[in-house]
């Protein structure tokens, strides 16, 4: 693992252990690009083909069947388990594809991507507190007046824990219902809740994008990477960050011909913000 990657994970673990909120430092030369990326939405559907197990076969059939229908398609990407992700120009085009009976008659099933429950992160939880104790504290001291106990037990669970092993506290990620998130956070993305008798704990919305720490791309992990190890400074092959003499560049933005004079691990990277925007669209509200 490279030095930059180690520093990134160490910083995240330290912040979770201390209970500090994450604060992004804005990079001036990226401000305009960031603002454009934040407001950009994507309109996607997932297409499956009856009896087809490979995404490339589904895509081939879709291209044959779709001729003459005139959908405004911005991009197509093969996915696992015989699925194809289709990005359309706007909501009207997505609705038209979802409702087109000709696709169904041809054996193609078109649907919106599945949504999933919101995630919230509670920082600086003592490591000695187990899952049941934590959930009970969160409910009794913060949710009892608004949420039924049976509903809480059925719908709220600990997803996983993060934090430095050397510290006595860690961050705990909870999967919750949208209205429980609303009760915990109010109208913002972060708040403080009561746990125990002495401390106010920081809780915030948790946002996650799957990415690879080998090539620093998205939608796959390092164990699945086919591109190979890239330098985390310039995103080129043949050396690591400690031996890099190139200018710092983000390989993801460079491939898409965007402003790329920033770290590939930057929290204000336009490509990262775009991926986060797509992730947010799939969170249940």
UniProtKB/TrEMBL annotation:
Comp. bias intervals (Basic and acidic residues): 26-35
Molecular-function GO terms, alphabetical: nucleic acid binding; zinc ion binding
Domain CCHC-type: 211-227, 230-246
Segments of this protein annotated with the region Disordered: 16-35
SUPFAM superfamilies, per the entry: Retrovirus zinc finger-like domains
UniProt protein name: CCHC-type domain-containing protein
């Amino acid at each position: 693992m490279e030095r930059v990657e180690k520093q990134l994970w160490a910083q995240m673990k330290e912040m979770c252990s201390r209970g500090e909120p994450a604060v992004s430092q804005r990079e001036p030369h990226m401000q305009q690009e960031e603002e454009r990326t934040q407001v950009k939405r994507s309109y996607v559907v997932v297409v499956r083909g009856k009896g087809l197990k490979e995404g490339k076969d589904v895509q081939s059939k879709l291209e044959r069947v779709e001729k003459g229908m005139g959908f405004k398609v911005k991009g197509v990407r093969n996915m696992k388990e015989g699925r194809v992700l289709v990005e359309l120009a706007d909501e009207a085009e997505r609705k038209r594809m979802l409702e087109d009976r000709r696709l169904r008659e041809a054996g193609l099933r078109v649907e919106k991507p599945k949504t999933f429950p919101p995630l919230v992160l509670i920082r600086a939880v003592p490591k000695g507190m187990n899952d049941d104790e934590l959930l009970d504290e969160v409910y009794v001291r913060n949710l009892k007046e608004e949420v039924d106990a049976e509903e809480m037990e059925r719908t709220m669970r600990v997803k996983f824990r993060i934090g430095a092993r050397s510290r006595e506290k860690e961050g705990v990620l909870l999967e919750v219902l949208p209205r429980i998130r609303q009760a915990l956070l109010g109208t913002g993305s972060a708040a403080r809740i009561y746990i125990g008798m002495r401390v106010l704990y920081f809780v915030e919305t948790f946002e996650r994008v799957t990415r690879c720490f080998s090539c620093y791309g998205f939608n796959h992990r390092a164990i699945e990477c086919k591109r190979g190890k890239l330098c985390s400074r310039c995103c080129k092959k043949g050396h690591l960050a400690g031996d890099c003499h190139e200018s710092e560049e983000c390989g993801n933005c460079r491939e898409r011909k965007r402003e790329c004079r920033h770290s590939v691990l930057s929290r204000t990277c336009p490509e990262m913000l775009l991926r986060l925007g797509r992730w947010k669209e799939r969170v249940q509200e």
